[in-house]
Design a protein that fits this description.
The protein is of the alpha+beta class and 145 residues long. It folds into 2 domains: 53 residues; 87 residues, no CATH class. Helices cover 38% and strands 30% of the residues. Helix 1 packs antiparallel against helix 3.
């Protein structure tokens, strides 16, 4: 009986962690809509691919860029907040259209924490749907207890 309670508690903690993680990214993405635009230089680009044996293969765009803010030099690698993984391998190419090392781009910098930057402002994904699914699973676990 104790092991069942422990297992359910761990599952609840895990799902609460997923909800907090999603909420964090959603709020950070919304905040990035007000960040300052600064010029940056692309250092490298690419695509990270996860090959699955049971489900669809997924890929995401990868970038590294350098920028200056308030006289300091920073590097960043965030494309956008949220879910940028895609089952279609063309999606990363759409998010990083023909960018190569040395290209000039505009990035958006958090003025209160200049180490935080994004290539695109906002949040990618369906926040409400993700939260509803996670809360639904949590309710099923709690009610089954």
């Amino acid at each position: 009986m104790e092991s069942e309670t422990l297992a359910k508690t761990l599952i609840l903690i895990t799902f609460c962690g997923f909800i907090l993680y999603e909420l964090f990214h959603y709020l950070r993405g919304k905040a990035s809509e007000k960040w300052r635009a600064v010029p940056a230089k692309v250092l490298s680009t690419g695509t990270k691919t996860y090959l699955s044996e049971v489900g669809p293969n997924e890929s995401k765009p990868v970038i590294k860029y350098a920028y200056r803010y308030d006289g300091h030099r920073y590097t960043g690698s965030r494309v956008k907040y949220g879910n940028i993984w895609a089952e279609k391998f063309t999606r990363p190419k759409v998010m990083l259209p023909r960018l190569t090392g040395g290209d000039e781009v505009e990035v958006f910098v958090n003025p209160t924490r200049p180490r935080q930057s994004v290539l695109y402002r906002g949040y990618e994904g369906n926040f409400l749907l993700n939260i509803l699914i996670l809360v639904g699973v949590l309710l099923v676990i709690v009610l089954a207890a």
